[in-house]
User: Which sequence fits this backbone?
């Protein structure tokens, strides 16, 4: 068994302290939609750079896509529209959804499961897979694909909750051993505001970060008397702790700085909804979890996730540094370099002609393009690589643990 990897974390050291904490916490705690799902209706990519898209390769990556599901995730990220992609195969456990996915992405063939598609990747000459399955299967399937020599991108989160912490060292090891690209499709990374924050940070226009805010508010039905509105495979969303799905808020720090959270104290607010008040597989009573983090660079962050907001929803964030800040709703950048920033290229670049930016703030197409570039261009690193994906996900798991322990401040392990 491998006990160490390129990120300096061992399976034994990572799990040793974390699982004991979760055991203590447990002892102390109790078909396609007709209308747009939140996030998919946000298709405006924002202001784009004037410069036209420039081809970067004459090669095509042979891709397999897994999962159309309730949200139509498999077809929503534009692989079928990218000039450097050939969609070879697709799969969904539901035969009807699989056929629909095949029609939408123009896949040459279908498989009954992602596992079967991965097993036959060699004979199909598949080079990369996009895993848009249920959250509980992301990490297991990613490891399997990497071990079969495939480049991998998955939907969020990288893994699901405390019971999957054991997969963290295994995923890191699979990436290292395979030498392949791993990416997590965190949509925050290519929202216009987060993209601008990252460019400003990298250019030194924010200075040392002092404080970051991120929030993911996802309105849900007021199902306080029944188990209705559970559109998820094997019910994985039923009673889901909000901070088990933290990436749309945490990304406003991790996808800007590529640094991690080191400590957390989180407040959980009990929900009126049936799935929380009457019990669920996660033993989770909270419909809202509000986390305060200490970050690797010494700054503070407030990251919020709520399923209980009755009307307003979205992914939003703000960041403050010692030399400048970026607050979208207040006009963007303010700071020492106002004149210089006005001349900077902080708008997203153009995508290939005919490729839509997609939903979640026009981020879908950019995540796909970033993944394909990482495969074809030597030295190109995807924004949400394995370390950033895990740093973004792990912090939420420990935030939930903190909430279950009454807001106790906990250390967040490094990867």
Assistant:
């Amino acid at each position: 068994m491998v006990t160490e990897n390129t990120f300096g974390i061992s399976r034994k050291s990572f799990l040793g302290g974390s699982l004991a904490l979760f055991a203590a916490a447990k002892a102390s705690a109790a078909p396609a939609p007709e209308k747009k799902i939140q996030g998919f209706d946000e298709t405006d990519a924002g202001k784009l750079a004037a410069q036209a898209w420039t081809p970067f390769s004459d090669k095509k990556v042979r891709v397999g896509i897994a999962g159309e599901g309730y949200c139509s995730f498999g077809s929503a990220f534009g692989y079928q529209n990218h000039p450097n992609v050939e969609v070879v195969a697709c799969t969904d456990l539901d035969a009807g959804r699989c056929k629909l996915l095949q029609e939408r992405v123009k896949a040459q063939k279908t498989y009954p499961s992602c596992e079967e598609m991965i097993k036959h990747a060699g004979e199909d000459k598949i080079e990369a897979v996009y895993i848009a399955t249920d959250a509980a299967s992301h990490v297991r399937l990613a490891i399997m694909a990497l071990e079969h020599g495939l480049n991998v991108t998955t939907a969020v989160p990288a893994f699901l909750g405390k019971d999957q912490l054991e997969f963290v060292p295994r995923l890191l090891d699979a990436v290292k051993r395979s030498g392949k690209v791993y990416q997590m499709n965190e949509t925050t990374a290519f929202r216009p505001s987060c993209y601008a924050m990252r460019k400003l940070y990298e250019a030194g226009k924010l200075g040392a970060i002092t404080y970051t805010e991120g929030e993911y508010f996802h309105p849900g039905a007021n199902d306080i008397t029944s188990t209705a509105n559970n559109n998820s495979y094997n019910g994985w969303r039923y009673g889901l702790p909000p901070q088990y799905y933290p990436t749309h808020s945490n990304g406003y720090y991790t996808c800007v700085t590529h640094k991690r959270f080191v400590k957390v104290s989180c407040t959980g607010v009990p929900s009126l909804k049936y799935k929380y008040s009457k019990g669920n597989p996660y033993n989770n009573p909270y419909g809202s979890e509000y986390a305060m983090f200490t970050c690797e660079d010494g700054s503070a962050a407030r990251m919020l996730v709520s399923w209980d907001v009755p009307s307003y929803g979205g992914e939003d964030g703000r960041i403050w540094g010692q030399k400048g800040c970026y607050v979208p709703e207040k006009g963007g950048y303010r700071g020492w370099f106002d004149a210089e920033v006005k001349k900077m290229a902080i708008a997203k670049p153009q995508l290939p002609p005919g490729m839509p930016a997609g939903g979640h703030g026009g981020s879908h197409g950019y995540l796909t393009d970033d993944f394909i570039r990482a495969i074809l261009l030597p030295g190109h690193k995807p924004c949400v690589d394995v370390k950033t994906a895990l740093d973004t996900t792990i912090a939420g798991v420990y935030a939930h643990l903190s909430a279950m322990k009454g807001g106790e401040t906990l250390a967040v392990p490094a990867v």
In short: The radius of gyration is 21 Å. The chain is about 30% helix and 20% strand. The longest strand covers residues 261-270. Residues 386-404 form the longest helix (19 residues).
